[in-house]
């Protein structure tokens, strides 16, 4: 209800001086003197004073605990043409709103006095004798409440009368009804099907007092109903007329009406009597066709149309709307020029798996059909376009090498004619390959796959959670042969599944790539075996660390675990620019005999993971002056000559044997120089023939080293 304008605006109303009371208005005569002293303040000063005293009024009401709504005076009866309303007897009221109108409670067509502290208003009241509805709002303790009042305007309601009220109407007839007193709204209905009909015109509810209606020619009776909303009720008056001037309805004729047309042809049809709308359809595929022009429901009486120069028949259907009914006349013409059938491209040869045919060089064809088959001339088991105005199409072929029969049919001058062609299908299908097929991808990677034969569709799924995943790309069922894909820079493995539709069946190939990494650390090896290392004789191996990402990688820390292992050669932290390497030296110096495992741990900002590890393994071997000499007899009765022997050894109590000789021992003796003091061993020997077959094992031989 807030009005942001600092002054109140409403139709035919103004504020006079207001009486103001502070405290209890019945307390003493001083208050009445105060009232009189303020009653002639100007409107501007009064508004300011009201604003200053509003808090006092609110506090006074709260202090006394009273809230009494004001009453509107007058509260009923017939109003004067300049009516003053007052409401100064309320207690605890901080703002008022008064809405007055003739369209029901809350209507404001007479007054919209919104959120004011004034207690009087003068309103100009029409003299139409209708009911006036007043809604009086008051803001009490922050809550708006209202009371409704009902009054009567001075004067007597008088319905408006229609002008004209009878007679013959013009083709464009203006009706007026501005002489009434009391109507709040109007409706005008115009029809020809009976009293109250509106098939010609309906205004809807309006406050306008005139309108212009288009009438049909002829002597038809027209029914007009003028409805008026008076004192919140609709009442109506009916009138009867005759439509338009007398005379005979005459359809227009089309000019020209026959013959050969120009390339830019003007048609006219201005000689009719009674038509109100026209439609002109021009085409080459029969009466009613519109492939040349479609001029629909217009009041224009001429049209310029571009005519092809193909020499074929042009069919024109000319519609006219007369007395609400459409009627038409057909005309026949000839295009300029000479008819020339289109030819097919290609016209012979071997077809591609996905072959495009075109036929755009003809003059005169209004439509085409393309039939493609393999079962004889005119067959269509491969493709049939149906009737079309397109001049190209793409057809998929099986890679069978068979003969293909193509028939191009053309509708020329309303008759179909055809030309036949013969081709050869492509050879056996060959799946396309994905390029690239491996390696590290770029952040914006283009994949191509254009080298297949017989492939009709492709799908490419790219992701990091396994083959068939699509969290990077999902290119599904496409005829494209390349795709540019954004690749994350995390150094992770990328899985690509490449589908191809060949002979109606989907098949796929999987490819594996590596994402680029913004920061990447590549290790030359992730496992370093030292083998046997004699106590007191340390062994050394090195591993290269390479920055393989797009930006410098920082190795912030390095550590090694495992007995006998140390690292050197790289100071931590160290930063490697792209392509730069550093060599990490690993030493194994066992202090006791036996197997020793270890791990090198490197911490970096690599996108693939902050921790990289290198597994270490080695066996400490004590310096020993002992050796075990073995000898055995060659086997007999094996059937094949013995090529050599394998010697096996296990620590006593263990079931795990190791092969001691790296190549076949061709003699019947072997000396083991790797025994350790204080250890017991078990040996056996197996013979091997020329074909690599092993014979049965020998007996076990046990030995204990002091």
Explain this structure.
With 706 residues, the protein is mostly beta strands. The chain has two helices and 46 strands. The strands form 14 sheets. Strands 33-40-39-35-37 form a five-stranded mixed beta sheet, with no helix packed on it. It has a four-stranded antiparallel beta sheet with strand order 4-3-6-7. Mean pLDDT is 85; it is low at 1-64.
Task: Label this structure with key terms.
5% helix, 706 residues, 45% strand, mainly beta
| Amino- and carboxy-terminal Cα gap | 112 Å
From the spread of the alpha carbons, the general shape counts as elongated
The SS-based structural class is mainly beta
Low-confidence stretches: 1-64
Q: What would you report as the Rg, rounded to the nearest angstrom?
A: 53 Å
Mean pLDDT, nearest integer?
85
Strand order in space, largest sheet: 33-40-39-35-37
The count of β-strands is 46
The largest β sheet comes out as: 5 strands, mixed
Helix content: under 10%
Percent of residues in β-strands: over 45%
Q: Tally the helices.
A: 2
Task: Write a compact overview of the structure shown.
The protein is mainly β and 706 residues long. The protein is built from two helices and 46 strands.
Task: Write the SSE topology.
Layout: E1 13-14, H1 29-38, H2 43-64, E2 82-86, E3 93-101, E4 111-116, E5 120-124, E6 131-140, E7 143-152, E8 172-176, E9 183-191, E10 201-202, E11 210-214, E12 221-230, E13 233-242, E14 264-268, E15 275-283, E16 293-298, E17 302-306, E18 313-322, E19 325-334, E20 354-358, E21 365-373, E22 383-384, E23 392-396, E24 403-412, E25 415-424, E26 444-448, E27 455-463, E28 473-478, E29 482-486, E30 493-502, E31 505-514, E32 521-523, E33 527-534, E34 539-547, E35 553-561, E36 565-568, E37 574-576, E38 581-588, E39 594-604, E40 611-621, E41 628-631, E42 642-651, E43 658-659, E44 669-672, E45 680-689, E46 701-704
Parallel strand pairs: 33-40
Antiparallel strand pairs: 1-5, 2-5, 3-4, 3-6, 6-7, 8-11, 9-10, 9-12, 12-13, 14-17, 15-16, 15-18, 18-19, 20-23, 21-22, 21-24, 24-25, 26-29, 27-28, 27-30, 30-31, 32-34, 34-38, 35-37, 35-39, 36-38, 39-40, 41-44, 42-43, 42-45, 45-46
């Amino acid at each position: 209800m807030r009005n942001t304008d600092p002054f109140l605006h409403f139709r035919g109303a103004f504020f006079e001086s207001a009486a103001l009371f502070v405290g209890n208005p019945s307390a003493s005569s001083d208050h009445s003197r105060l009232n009189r002293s303020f009653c002639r303040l100007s409107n501007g000063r009064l508004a300011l004073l009201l604003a200053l005293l509003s808090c006092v009024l609110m506090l006074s009401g709260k202090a006394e605990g009273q809230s009494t709504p004001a009453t509107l005076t007058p509260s009923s009866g017939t109003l004067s043409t300049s009516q003053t309303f007052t409401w100064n007897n309320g207690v605890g009221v901080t703002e008022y709103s008064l809405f007055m109108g003739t369209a029901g409670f809350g209507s404001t067509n007479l007054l919209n006095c919104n959120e004011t502290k004034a207690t009087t208003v003068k309103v100009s009241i029409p003299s139409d004798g209708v009911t006036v509805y007043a809604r009086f709002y008051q803001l009490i303790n922050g809550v708006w409440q209202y009371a409704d009042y009902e009054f009567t305007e001075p004067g007597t309601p008088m319905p408006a009368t229609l002008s004209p009220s009878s007679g013959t109407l013009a083709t464009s007839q203006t009706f007026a009804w501005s002489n009434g007193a009391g109507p709040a709204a109007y409706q005008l209905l115009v029809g020809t099907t009976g009293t109250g009909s509106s098939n010609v015109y309906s205004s809807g509810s309006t406050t306008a007092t005139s309108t212009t209606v288009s009438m049909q020619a002829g002597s038809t009776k027209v029914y007009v109903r003028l409805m008026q909303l008076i004192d919140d009720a609709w009442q109506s008056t009916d009138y009867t007329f005759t439509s338009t001037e007398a005379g005979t309805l005459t359809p227009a004729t089309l000019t020209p009406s026959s013959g050969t047309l120009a390339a830019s042809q003007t048609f006219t049809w201005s000689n009719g009597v009674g038509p109100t709308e026209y439609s002109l359809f021009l085409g080459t595929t029969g009466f009613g066709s519109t492939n040349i022009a479609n001029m629909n429901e217009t009041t224009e009486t001429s049209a310029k149309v571009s005519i092809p120069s193909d020499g074929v028949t042009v069919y024109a259907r000319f519609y006219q709307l007369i007395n609400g009914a459409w009627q038409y006349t057909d005309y026949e013409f000839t295009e300029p020029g000479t008819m020339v059938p289109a030819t097919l491209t290609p016209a012979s040869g071997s077809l591609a798996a996905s072959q495009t045919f075109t036929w755009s060089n003809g003059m005169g064809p209004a439509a085409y059909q393309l039939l493609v088959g393999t079962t004889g001339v005119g067959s269509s088991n491969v493709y049939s376009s149906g009737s079309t105005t397109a001049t190209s199409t793409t057809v998929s072929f099986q890679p069978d090498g068979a003969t293909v029969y193509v028939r191009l049919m053309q509708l020329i001058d309303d008759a179909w004619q055809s030309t036949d062609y013969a081709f050869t299908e492509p050879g056996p299908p060959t799946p396309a390959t994905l390029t690239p097929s491996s390696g590290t991808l770029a952040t914006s990677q283009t994949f191509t796959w254009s080298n297949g034969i017989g492939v009709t569709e492709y799908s490419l799924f790219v992701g990091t959670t396994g083959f068939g995943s699509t969290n990077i790309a999902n290119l599904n069922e496409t005829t494209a042969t390349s795709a540019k894909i954004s690749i994350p820079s995390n150094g992770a493995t990328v899985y690509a599944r490449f589908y191809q539709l060949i002979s109606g069946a989907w098949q796929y190939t999987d490819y594996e790539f590596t994402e680029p990494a913004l920061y990447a650390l590549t290790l030359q090896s992730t496992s370093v075996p030292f083998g046997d290392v004699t106590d007191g004789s340390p062994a050394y191996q090195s591993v290269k660390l390479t920055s393989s990402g797009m930006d410098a990688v920082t190795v912030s820390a390095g550590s090694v675990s495992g007995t006998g292992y140390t690292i050197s050669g790289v100071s931590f932290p160290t930063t490697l620019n792209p392509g730069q390497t550093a060599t990490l030296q690993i030493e194994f110096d066992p202090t006791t005999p036996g197997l020793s495992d270890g791990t090198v741990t490197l911490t970096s900002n690599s996108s693939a993971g902050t921790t990289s590890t290198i597994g270490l393994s080695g066996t400490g071997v004590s310096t020993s002056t002992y050796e075990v000499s073995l000898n055995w007899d060659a086997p007999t009765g094996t059937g094949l000559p013995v090529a050599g022997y394998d010697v096996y050894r296990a620590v006593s109590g263990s079931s795990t044997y190791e092969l001691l000789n790296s190549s076949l021992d061709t003699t019947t003796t072997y000396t083991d120089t790797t025994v350790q003091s204080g250890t017991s061993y078990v040996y056996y020997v197996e013979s091997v023939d020329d074909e690599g077959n092993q014979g049965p094992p020998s007996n076990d031989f046990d030995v204990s080293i002091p």
